[in-house]
Amino acid sequence: MYAPEAALEGPNVSVATPPDYPPALREALFAWCVRTGDDALVLGHRLSEWCGHAPMLEEDLALPNMALDLIGQARGLYAYAGALEGKGRDEDAFAYLREEREFRNVRLVERPNGDFAHTMLRQLIFAAYAEPLWRAAEGSGDPMIAGLGAKAVKEMAYHVRHSAEWVIRLGDGTEESAARMAAAVQALAPFAAELFVADEVSAVVAEAGLAPDPATLEAPWRATMSAVFAEAGLDWPEVKRPARGGRQGLHGEELGRLLAEMQSVARAHPGATW
Question: To which H or E segment does residue 15 belong?
């Protein structure tokens, strides 16, 4: 990862001193880091819920490790967001001291785990989007984002491979597993489109060459999903009413319950260190 000569040393992650961006660009990059970190943190927490409950020992190790990948990405993004904001907030403040409406993650990542087929398909949908996102971010004009991308792209490539193997195995498996995977497709398909919605934040950072336009990630995402679905014997349904609102802080009730659990210790013991 990029190691700057000058760095901001916080209690958690050390990050590069941000370049002297114009205020509008600095604000947009801050928002991009927060929303991208929110995606990773919420999905990482969801995967962590499988620890001790996975259907086989291999997955009891794989799923928490995938969760750690995502939480590590969130830490770096939150720490850099704090440096961009300049108000003294660290990664813990972003993770534990914000309310539900302040989170800007897409609604896909907050969906409950459901059964194993549901979890694996959710992971594939997200990872097939995040892998090209981080591949593009390696070429970012911001050294910190480029450094985060160089590490995250390798992690997400593994997430794609691992989840794709399970989607194929279950979709092309027994009558029961195929039915469960087909049900997962119907349940999760409405949440995929939000990943590729562009807005003012994404437009500003994309124009500056700091992060990719989300609309450009849909083609590689579709290529990955089509290849996996062809092997799994699955069809992607037509979605007439895609679920959106997460980027604006509008979430399902599932996120509130997730945050209540995830933030409980930090809120019960404010300022505690361990």
Answer: strand 15-16
The secondary structure element, H or E, covering residue 207 is helix 200-207
Residue type, 269: H
H/E segment holding residue 246: none
Write out the two tokens for 78: 């939150």
> How much of the chain is helix, strand and coil, in % rounded to 5?
70, 0, 30
pLDDT at 13: 67
Q: What is the pLDDT of residue 270?
A: 87
**CB 55, CB 113: distance < 8 Å:** no
Kindly tell me the burial class for residue 104, based on how many C-beta atoms sit within 10 Å of its own C-beta (0-12, 13-18, 19 or more): buried
Paired tokens of 259 = 């945050």
Give the containing element (helix H, strand E) for 65.
helix 57-85
CB 28 within 8 A of CB 205: yes
Distance CA 223, CA 139 (A): 22
Region 193-212 average pLDDT = 98
Please state the φ and ψ torsions of residue 252, each to the nearest 5 degrees.
Answer: -80, 165
Which residues, 6+ apart, have CB-to-CB distance to 230 below 8 Å? none
Q: Does the reported pTM lie above 0.70? A: yes
Residue 165's Cβ-count burial label (10 Å; 0-12, 13-18, 19+) is middle
Q: Give the separation between CA 158 and CA 169, rounded to whole angstroms.
A: 17
Residue listed under structure tokens 């792209």:
153
C-beta separation of 82 from 94 below 8 A: yes
What separation in angstroms does the CA of 44 have from each of 215, 259, 271?
Answer: 24, 12, 23
Predicted pLDDT of residue 7:
36
